[in-house]
Design a protein that fits this description.
Bound molecules: flavin-adenine dinucleotide
Structural class: alpha/beta
Strand order of the largest sheet: 1-2-5-6-7-8-9-10
CATH topology: TIM Barrel
Distance between the termini: 22 Å
Number of helices: 11
Helix content: 40-55%
Shape: globular
CATH class: Alpha Beta
Radius of gyration: 20 Å
């Protein structure tokens, strides 16, 4: 089922989770072990992130060097199919511009369609580790909106090869990313919102947000989206802050502010267990407020911390 259908049919706030593919070499059982406790909350769907390959320099036996592409977390499409089979729950793979040509993307979408996957979260992806800024693949897309347009074209039966006339139509529900505190590369909040409006106008079915720790920022973002005429569902992306290190790392990587009350409380703790307790309490409070505000879904970034997320969700369902 599509995410938009889940939202339309919901009688209460829905729950969804996001997972990362395991590091290469690990078994699918690591995904099931991660998800098993969380399935108690009957998530409406599971998102699976996509990770582009990084370029590495490796030393050959003869002492010379070679450039190799290494993907540390492969398997997004397979994991989605496995999750759907194993739990009978919908899966939403992330698809990205980075590292993909348009025809790689078309092939990937055809695979997803054949597997019965109806949802994709359409993203640009970040710069490769060895690059200072995002560069598209030759023959690939520069912005998420261009990838979105390709997905929407395939939904109309329009393939890259114009010799395919009356091609089979896919039926993807396509979400896009939104940033209540502005994407780190955007010139301004206003310009970033305008870019989001363009994605909505190009047919995005819903918006999933970057994490945030101050609900006021999310509420303002939702109001500003409405004022601009963005009328698709906005799903808050949520993550607990669970240790002191994250106080400096998260703002730097994700361009999010940590409210003083939360950072002060975390700074006063003397061990990780106490810090995690504070982070859980904070997120529980955030979720209660978001529910009261009427968000359609609470989407949790589980990121290797299923027990922490379990402790949050059990307080709010
Ligand atoms: P875009 O919408 O393309 O925007 C990127 C930047 O360009 C923004 O600053 C925007 O304002 C600007 N912009 C957009 N269009 C234009 C235009 N036409 N002209 C000029 N400027 C423009 N990354 C991964 O690699 N894998 C994942 O699985 C993944 N999952 C994510 C899930 C969520 C919910 C979120 C919020 C992010 C995720 N990311 C993931 C990270 C994401 O790829 C990065 O944040 C990336 O830097 C931007 O992606 P985007 O889709 O928002 O890009």
């Amino acid at each position: 089922m599509k995410i938009t259908e889940h939202i339309q049919q919901a009688k209460d706030t829905l729950i969804s989770f996001e997972i990362l593919p395991p590091l290469k070499g690990k078994d699918i059982s690591s995904i099931y072990n991660h998800l098993n406790p969380l399935m108690e909350f009957k998530p409406s769907w599971i998102n699976v992130t996509y990770h582009r390959a990084d370029t590495m320099i490796k030393k050959r036996n003869d002492g010379t060097f070679e450039k190799v592409a290494v993907r540390k977390r492969p398997g997004t499409v397979g994991i989605c199919a496995a999750i759907m089979n194993h739990y009978q729950v919908d899966a939403a793979p992330h698809i990205i511009c980075g590292g993909f040509t348009k025809s790689d993307t078309e092939d990937a979408l055809i695979d997803l369609n054949f597997l019965g996957i109806r949802n994709v979260l359409v993203l640009r992806g970040d710069a490769a580790k060895n690059e200072t800024h995002f560069e598209p693949e030759i023959g690939g897309h520069r912005y998420a909106i261009d990838l979105l347009k390709q997905v929407k074209n395939l939904n109309r039966g329009i393939y890259l090869d114009d010799e395919i006339i009356e091609g089979g139509k896919t039926d993807f529900c396509a979400g896009v990313a939104g940033y209540p505190e502005t994407h780190f590369e955007a010139k301004s909040y206003e310009e970033d919102l305008q870019r989001l409006k363009e994605k909505a106008d190009a047919g995005a079915d819903y918006i999933m947000t970057q994490m945030f720790f101050d609900n006021k920022k999310f509420f303002k973002f939702v109001e500003d989206c409405k004022s601009l005429g963005i009328n698709i569902p906005i799903i808050p992306g949520l993550k607990p802050l669970i240790n002191k290190k994250q106080l400096s790392v998260l703002p730097k990587i994700f361009n999010v502010e940590i409210p003083h009350d939360l950072s002060n409380a975390i700074l006063q703790t003397t061990n990780d267990a106490d810090a995690e307790k504070i982070g859980i309490e904070w997120l529980v409070q955030q979720c209660k407020e978001l529910k009261a505000f009427g968000v359609p879904v609470l989407h949790f970034y589980t990121l290797g911390k299923p027990q922490t997320i379990y402790n949050v969700v059990k307080e709010i369902v």
